[in-house]
Amino acid sequence: MKYLANPRLSNFTHLQAMLIKPYPSWELPELPHATHTTAQEYAYERLRFAIMVGGVPPGAALTIRGVADALSLSSTPVRETLRRLCAEGALFSQSNRRIITPPMTTARHQELISTRVALEQLAVRRAARFITENDLEILTNIDLQMDQAIVQQNYIQLVILNQQFHSTLYALNPEQVCLPMIESVWLQLGPFNRLAAERAGQLTLEDQHKNLLTALRKRDTEAASQAVEADIRDAADQASAAQ
Amino acid sequence: MKYLANPRLSNFTHLQAMLIKPYPSWELPELPHATHTTAQEYAYERLRFAIMVGGVPPGAALTIRGVADALSLSSTPVRETLRRLCAEGALFSQSNRRIITPPMTTARHQELISTRVALEQLAVRRAARFITENDLEILTNIDLQMDQAIVQQNYIQLVILNQQFHSTLYALNPEQVCLPMIESVWLQLGPFNRLAAERAGQLTLEDQHKNLLTALRKRDTEAASQAVEADIRDAADQASAAQ
DNA sequence: TTCCAACCAATGTGATCACATTGTTGCTAA
DNA sequence: TTAGCAACAATGTGATCACATTGGTTGGAA
């Protein structure tokens, strides 16, 4: 089940194929197959998720044939998936036409965190005025689920719920311009998050969500914006401390 | 030279094919063919440019076969190009698998402007510390060329130079995270810019570049950030006033 | 031993075709 | 007249193959 490039060519070690095969070791609910209308979408969801949770090591080279074989697809939908992920910043297309995951550096990490703060502060400011009591209830519910995931030390579930929390909030704005960009940043931060979760013992990033919810209930946009920044910086500090 | 969908299916009128054919009426230097190593890249550059300068009307449906015929290519590279542009926000993939240019609304325009301000302010702040005297000279030179383009009422050239000015500045930061996102916003603003240029008689957005250059020379990051915002808002106001 | 060129394997690219899906038209029957 | 269905046209999707490019290996000459 090899899907990375020939190691002789890419000089990177093989990756355990667990993220390309169905996700047994990740305790992940299999996505219902009916949601994937096309093979390309299926391949995209699989690869995107793998990258999002840091399942593909930085600098690894992906090959079209390799991924196609791993997913039992032909090369056409896989090629489109890889290009799409390149356009989203999740992968990087080298000049020699090889597609790799972006290398990981601290400078790049800082750049990504700054961008994430700028975009998410903007998003929360522009979404706050649309929020209803019902929305607050939904967000509170997600936050409670996150508490459970922390207790269970379920990292994958925590990452998913955290992103669900943020994107649910930002998506209250009917004109969605920055959410795709925020998701692009999340994708690029995937390897860093993974590193943080692997090396850090504790998972403690729920407090700022409580602050954020309090601010949103008071319709205090400024406090909400500050809580978003604090939440992001907390998570980033955790990743840095883990190194 | 039809490249839009069958009007019966898309209920949009045909577009003059001038932006898909070589750009005679746009007074554009033909891009040297050597720069396009692959057919996909060629198709991408062509379509991207057409969208960037507002050459494709909002809501128009593009078909794979249509674009492929117009560019004398097979469908494979065109399909990848269309998906890539969808991922960049320049196009929108409907649920019925039809690919259209995003519709134009004032709410969306405001959202794009806000995002542009947030991203470009961040970019200039993080690029300013890297600037050298040589860079300042290059930027001043581009600004002078813009003055010429304004005198010549050459809208296309002005758009290109304006983006060149901004991206040259932001690219001084070696870790490039937000420049692709900024370019995505530019792509999405293409139709609006076009509208502004068509309906507005005057082209007056160079003053803020002078302010920005002054601030950069003084290494005054805060003033530079404000000049960037003023520049963007000026251009946006022009587009709004044109409606 | 070192270097280079020829060769081979791995991989990306693009064209083409068959098929699935979607949209339109027009005819039939209530 | 109009709802509904059948036929057809337009388009998207995916598999496959030939070819180009790239990376690595090997063997011989300096």
List keywords for this structure.
243 residues; mainly alpha; globular; Arc Repressor Mutant, subunit A; DNA-binding; homodimer; Four Helix Bundle (Hemerythrin (Met), subunit A)
Question: In words, what does this structure look like?
Answer:
The structure is a homodimer of 243-residue chains. Chain A is an all-alpha fold and 243 residues long. The first copy, chain A, folds into two domains: 7-100, Arc Repressor Mutant, subunit A, CATH 1.10.10; 106-242, Four Helix Bundle (Hemerythrin (Met), subunit A) (Up-down Bundle), CATH 1.20.120.530. Helices cover 62% and strands 2% of the residues of chain A. Chain A contains ten helices and three strands. A three-stranded antiparallel sheet of chain A has the order 1-3-2. In chain A, strand 2 and strand 3 (99-100) form a beta hairpin. Chain A is globular. Chain A starts with 6 loop residues before the first helix and ends with a helix. The model of chain A is unreliable at 6-30 (pLDDT under 50). Chain A binds a DNA duplex (30 and 30 nucleotides) through helix 3 and helix 4.
